[in-house]
Design goal:
The protein has 192 residues and is mostly beta strands. It contains 2 helices and 17 strands. The protein has a 4-stranded antiparallel sheet, with no helix packed on it. It has a 4-stranded antiparallel sheet with strand order 11-12-13-14, with no helix packed on it. A 3-stranded antiparallel sheet has the order 15-16-17, with no helix packed on it. Strand 13 and strand 14 (142-145) form a beta hairpin.
């Protein structure tokens, strides 16, 4: 099991390291509340910022995913890209300028990401109402949009925000603002 804590920020590494590291929890009783020291849940290791990776400044980083090989995927929502870092916090690649079936895919406003064991990348392109399925070489293999199905209300506002893919290849998509549950797609990309 790979466990890693990564801080993606627009603040400088010096500012982060200067911040207090005290952790605590609150205890309450009727009419009172006090903080009690607690064991830290994680230990600061490193700060990844645009300067350390040698890329343009992050503009609204929205989600981070670490795969089983230690690659770190950062959804830079404001710049419409995914920045991929190696386990040693160096730049591996940037995923941007995607196209599918002759159409350029701008995914500015993307909110989530999920990466499978074989490094298939699912990007929740929230503002464009789709999920982009790509790889590390920016080759798009599919685009999951809202299906025209009777079980989906006519006024459903499809805004994919979070994605998960199970070990059998089924894709679960949560739509921002929806209380209907997850949309489920079969391994072949068809709606279930």
């Amino acid at each position: 099991l790979l466990t890693m804590t990564v801080l993606v920020t627009t603040a400088s590494a010096e500012d982060i390291q200067k911040s207090p590291y005290d952790t605590y929890t609150y205890w309450t009783a009727p009419g009172t509340r006090w903080n009690v020291s607690a064991t830290p849940m994680y230990e600061y290791k490193a700060t990844i910022d645009a300067a350390s990776l040698g890329v343009t400044v992050f503009k609204d980083p929205a989600d981070v995913f670490t795969d089983e090989k230690g690659l770190i995927y950062i959804v830079d929502s404001g710049n419409g890209r995914v920045v991929v870092a190696n386990a040693d916090y160096t730049l591996k690649t940037e995923i941007k300028n995607l196209s599918f079936k002759g159409e350029k895919l701008n995914f500015t406003g993307a909110a989530g990401i999920f990466v499978t064991k074989d490094q298939t990348i699912y990007i929740a392109d929230t503002e464009n109402a789709r999920v982009i399925v790509t790889d590390l070489n920016s080759k798009v293999s599919d685009v999951l949009t809202l299906p025209d199905e009777d079980v989906i209300p006519a006024n459903f506002n499809y805004r994919p925000a979070k994605i998960a893919v199970d070990s059998h290849g089924y894709t679960y998509i949560l739509s921002d603002g929806s209380y209907y549950g997850a949309l489920l797609y079969k391994p072949d990309g068809s709606f279930l």
